Each structure stands twice: as C-alpha cells, then as structure tokens.
C-alpha cells in the first residue's frame, strides 16, 4: 500500500512525461500516485505550469487513469504556492481551483519581496537565500524563520489546501546548522505553535523524502517535528517530491521508518475522494515482500481538494 502524492513532470519543473512516472510507480510497486505539478501563478516563473497548459495536464491524467486505473490508483492534484496577496488569491481561485482537483498541496516557495519588488524565493539557491536574509531581514535568521512559520500558520487557516508541502523548508540550506540551530528554544516554540494550528485545521503533513536530495540532506519534517505532530494527532502521508521518474519511490522506505519511529501507526491515503487512515502494517508487508526503494536514498539509475475523513488518531 505504499503511496506517493507529490511529483512533478515536464508540465512544470520536472523531467519526463506523466506516463513515465506511472510506469516507474508500477515498477516500484506503488498502490497509488498523485500528480502535483506546480500550479500557475499570475507572474512569470521558470518552474510553474503556464495556465494555458492546465487543460492538457488534466486531459493527460484522465487518459492515464483510464489506461492504468486497474493497476494503480491515480489522482489529479497540484502543488500551489501560498501567497497572501489579493491578486494572487483571486487568480488561483478563478483560473486554477475553479477547475476542481482531488487535492492541493500548499507550499511556501516565496516569502516577501526583494528591494526591486520581485518576489523573493526561499529555495532557488544559497546566494538568493543569503541576499534575502540581508535585504529583507537585516541578516536576522530568526526574523526569517518567524515570517516563514507565521505564513505556514496562515496557509493552514486559509482553507484551500489539503496537505502542507515540505513543512520545515527553512532548513533547505541550513546544512550543519549553518544559519540556526533547530534545538534553539525560539525555533522549537515556533514549530510547536505552528503544529498546534495545523492540528486545529486538520491539515495533513507530508513526510517528504526529497529532502534527502536537497542541500540539507534531511527529509522534511525533522524527526522531532514528526514526533510532536504525532502527539497532536496530525495526519501524515509519504511523498518523494519526485522531479524525475526514477525518484518516484526514492527514500519512501526510509520515510516509512521515520514515521513509525515517531509513533505513528497509520498514514493518510486518498480513497474514493476521501482521505482515510490506513495501517502502517500493510506498508511494512509491502516492503518485506520486496518493494524497491532506489538505493535506499542512493543514486539515480544510469539511463478542489479532496474531502477529509472523520477525525481519528494516526498514532498509537
């Protein structure tokens, strides 16, 4: 019953056709996959899907559902940026969400504006991050983290999102505690405050194994965050944030271990349009039966919104 609800194809910033991802998922023994290319935004980017491609994207997913639906459950989603500006929200509601989606992952890739008025990206590269830390936050990393997690709380309260993408994304370039310690009292307090809002709003957290491919070399969220999420009854799902077909099952076995060690006994799965809790035991059996997990986080081979189920605890 291993699933993956977060991947990107050539429709946005990934490589490969949607069908290649399905084939990779079948080879990996996945039971379900969701497509989540980056949703259009009303300004130019090099990595979001143009709004003109939405019909083609939707049509291709429906075709794949017809062709492969008896072998793997496929769902139609998006990863959509949370930006609080009124014009962005109106565009998203009118041009994107109005089409109807199985679920929407909410993520924060932009935070604040640079001096020239352009949106500042928190994930494009270390140089861009450090420029924003200086020009927007005066070099104060704590102010940056406070802004990020306050925005994450607003995302949770917004009502348009099902899943929070890469929750602790502030650590993307924080390898070896370069900018801050995640053991700092102020940071732990921010995390706890934010998780309490997520619990109240019943937002699902993804355990994103793609973090093991990022500069921080750590899945999102960190183990201490996942343990606290479990204590608060926050549901989780496993995702690889694939940008190439070979990454579809990347790190999912290791992510499963992390979820179990955090105290979870169930994870969320989309079934019949509803997010249901399913036992980890079934996933453990899949792995024991020989579910491939690419290099156990190793190298590549050479070559709107779904409804929520009745609330129950995902933990022991």
How does this structure look, described?
- The chain is built from 9 helices and 12 strands.
- The chain has 316 residues and is an alpha/beta fold.
- It has a single domain, classed as TIM Barrel (Alpha-Beta Barrel).
- Helix 5 (141-158) runs parallel beside helix 6 (185-201).
Strand content: 15-25%
Please identify the structural class as seen in this structure.
Answer: alpha/beta
**What would CATH call the homologous superfamily?**
Metal-dependent hydrolases
Q: Order the strands across the largest sheet as they lie in space.
A: 1-2-3-4-7-8-9
Key traits:
35% helix; TIM Barrel; globular; seven-stranded parallel beta sheet; 9 helices; 316 residues; alpha/beta; three-stranded mixed beta sheet
Brief write-up:
The protein is an alpha/beta fold. 35% of the residues lie in helices and 16% in strands.
